[in-house]
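From: lab user (bench 3)
To: helpdesk
Subject: output format question, protein + uridine-5'-diphosphate-glucose

Hello, I'm new to running complex predictions and I'm not sure whether the block I got back is the full result or only part of it. Here's what I submitted:
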Amino acid sequence: MSLKVSVIGTGYLGATHAACMAELGFEVIGLDIDQAKIERLAEGLLPFHEPELPELLRKHVASGRLRFTTSYAEVGEWADVHFIGVGTPQRTDGQGADMSYVDAAATSLARHITRDALIVGKSTVPVGTARRLEALLAEHARPGVELSLAWNPEFLREGFAVRDTMTPDRLVFGIGTIDSEAMLREVYATALEAGTPVVVTDFETSELVKVAANAFLATKISFINAFAEVTETVGGDIGTLADALGYDARIGRRFLNAGVGFGGGCLPKDIRALQSRVSELGLSHTMGFLAEVDEINLRRRDRVVHLAEAMLADELAGAKIAVLGVSFKPDSDDVRDSPALDVATRLFNAGAEVAVYDPKGNANAARRFPRLDYCDSLYEAVDGASLVLLLTEWEEFKALQPGDLEPLVRKKRIIDGRNVLDHAGWEASGWSVAAMGRRYPNP
Ligand SMILES: NC(=O)c1ccc[n+]([C@@H]2O[C@H](COP(=O)([O-])OP(=O)(O)OC[C@H]3O[C@@H](n4cnc5c(N)ncnc54)[C@H](O)[C@@H]3O)[C@@H](O)[C@H]2O)c1
Ligand SMILES: O=c1ccn([C@@H]2O[C@H](COP(=O)(O)OP(=O)(O)O[C@H]3O[C@H](CO)[C@@H](O)[C@H](O)[C@H]3O)[C@@H](O)[C@H]2O)c(=O)[nH]1
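Helpdesk reply: Thanks, we reran it on our side. This is the complete output you should expect:
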């Protein structure tokens, strides 16, 4: 008989995982403490934007294979395997991860599970967490119930979440005191049969793989952005530099796009949590470079603000600035630690009138920062603007031509924060163009 699966936490990770587990043929219950979110999901409605996921959700809610609940008692007596995918955000009082949601989820599961079951951690956690949770589960388990724990970090990217879950680059199984490899292989049989590499290892390695991957990706982005700072002074073309580097197969071209930098609910908080964790372990010297990675990244946002100030000079107060893109990356409505939203709010605080348009991110941004002027279209945002900022590379922005904006803008000035436009072409049309890794003014 097919395994019954529960997924605890139905945010970006958990909702995707639950729908994909249903697509793989399992019966699934998604659980969250957010009643409103669960009500929406139970109607087959996704509370966030993620390509391909609405269709999967609708299909499996309609078939009854995927259900949603807020009741730990319901999943505790029903599922064979419980995935934990709750949030591990940056603590408000420091750099480390807030583990209260993971701890609460594990404790609630242990108290409500009525028969032997496997609990699988998917959240991104500081090394040592799984070992600690094993003890927590044993402490709160019902008498006679054996709970095994495995760690199975998730590597999906927002915008590609379904594809990354259905066909992952690799699977990592961190195995604890009770051997759970066979059950994990059953859960992931489809991917394994398709040849997905699997790394079976201990808890510590599995936890570290995840944060090491994100630290590496963040470092790669800041590496190219550090060179962007150099070309901004000496000249040179940062895109060509990245292309030339990328031809070296040992380096590779991906994650070498200079721009306004990385944001989102993962890379920034994960490099900070890693520094915090190694510091607790007395090893802060090992990850000191990540402080630089973070600083280089944040300086990119300063650069865009300074460019806007330079381009508008004494006109900034009261000038209309159009900000195109507010989500942290295209194909997502996620504005957590979004470089675009950060820049937009800083320019607003400096006295500009900021008009924002994002194909999907406006509502989330408006909840966090309601005072910006959120527009229904790109054309409404740029109408009367003295400066246009392109900060998230949605396809519709990449396709822009100078003639699309010229009838509307007050001044032909643009900052390409993602280096996706043909700068020479825009300049030939009379635009003043600033971009990342490029001297401004361009001699
Ligand atoms: N978003 C991604 O692309 C991604 C990818 C890989 C890993 N991760 C990791 O996955 C974890 C979740 O990230 P996310 O982006 O999905 O976060 P999220 O904030 O979108 O979702 C977390 C969900 O957990 C719920 N929750 C909190 N406490 C709970 C509890 N005690 N019981 C049940 N539900 C509870 C929240 O209500 C929320 O819906 C994090 O550790 C993150 O680092 C995220
Ligand atoms: O060359 C690049 C590539 C990305 N970015 C920015 O980096 C951020 C993160 O992008 P990406 O990694 O694609 O998005 P996430 O959905 O945050 O995914 C990361 O974080 C997830 C959560 O841990 C992991 O599962 C993924 O493997 C990891 O890529 C975004 O702001 C991008 O704009 C750049 O500035 N330059």
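A quick orientation on your result: Residues 203-234 form the longest helix (32 residues). Let us know if anything else is unclear.
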